[in-house]
Amino acid sequence: MGEILAFIPTLFGTVLHFINGIVGNYGWAIIIFTIIIRLIIFPLTIKQLQSAAKTQELQPKLAEIQERYKNDKEKLGQEQMKLYKEEGINPLGGCLPLLVQMPILISLYNAFSYPLTYQLNMHAETLTDAFKKTYAGGFGQLEYVNPIIHPEHIGLGFNFNFLGIFDLGHIPNLNSVTVANISGLALVLIATVLTFFSIKLSMKRPNQPAPQPGKDGKNSMAQMNKTMMFMMPAMTLFFGFSFPGGLTLYWAAGYVIQILQQLAINKWFHGRKKEVVLVDK
């Protein structure tokens, strides 16, 4: 079971280290790796956007069903599922990319945090010997292979310095004012802002009717969107102070790509709506 769980981070780590060997910089390797991952899951992203757009268009019908069966939860659920089925919508379709991203993030956390194990594929025995002979302990593998901390290990092929500012092998903290912590904080804030902007942008689709509130003055979709818009950046902020800078860069680069995808989809969706209007006329 352990070998199965180690397969994905080992695969990711091997690919990442291969790209790093070509470009010679950890940061650019992570960005290229992010683009590859996003291309792989792009079909799921398209389905997510299509599902979200269709669900948004169904809001008036959903609100009517909610009002009609507000006192019968079982019937309400049945009618909602019936409507989704008639319209060809999978209510969980919007969650697919997020569900896929979670094991990717967990695997990348291992690949980034334990580079000797998952990027250099060092066996436990070799790893133990390396630590016993050349490392006194007190830190983890990241510090061991970080040439910024241990210049003698520069031959291992890692260069965590990105753009001359960021140390991607460092987990930022607020305990001390250092260059690594200040640059790490800047990277975390950039990732948090990108997360917020991406979520906010995904809620704005051209020519979509605004969600209509029910008779109680509330709209469940609007409330969920508002929650997501603040919950996801909060998660990014938390992760940024828990994970190495390399993973934060992956997160930030992923949201840059997602923003560009969303802008392109919105433009396409806007043009498609115009064509539909012209045909109807």
Explain this structure.
The protein is an all-alpha fold and 281 residues long. The protein has one domain (2-280). The protein has twelve helices and two strands; from the N terminus they run αααααααααββααα. It has helices at residues 2-23, 26-40, 42-57, 59-68, 73-87, 96-113, 115-118, 124-134, 141-145, 179-202, 220-240, 245-280, and strands at residues 161-162, 166-167. Strands 1-2 form a two-stranded antiparallel sheet. β1 and β2 (166-167) form a beta hairpin. α10 (179-202) packs parallel to α12. The chain is elongated, with a radius of gyration of 23 Å. The model is unreliable at 206-212 and 274-281 (pLDDT under 50).
Question: What descriptive keywords fit this protein?
Answer:
single chain; 281 residues; mainly alpha; two-stranded antiparallel ribbon; 2 strands; 1% strand
Write a brief caption for the model.
With 281 residues, the protein is mainly alpha-helical. Helices cover 70% and strands 1% of the residues. It has one domain.
Write the layout of secondary structure elements.
Elements: H1 2-23, H2 26-40, H3 42-57, H4 59-68, H5 73-87, H6 96-113, H7 115-118, H8 124-134, H9 141-145, E1 161-162, E2 166-167, H10 179-202, H11 220-240, H12 245-280
Antiparallel strand pairs: 1-2
Helix pairs in contact: 1-2, 1-6, 2-12, 4-5, 10-11, 10-12
Largest sheet: 2 strands, antiparallel
Let me know the average pLDDT: 79
Listing every helix as H and every strand as E from the N terminus to the C terminus, the arrangement reads: HHHHHHHHHEEHHH
Neighbour order of strands in the largest sheet? 1-2
Q: How many strands? A: 2
Radius of gyration: 23 Å
Number of helical regions: 12
Structural class: mainly alpha
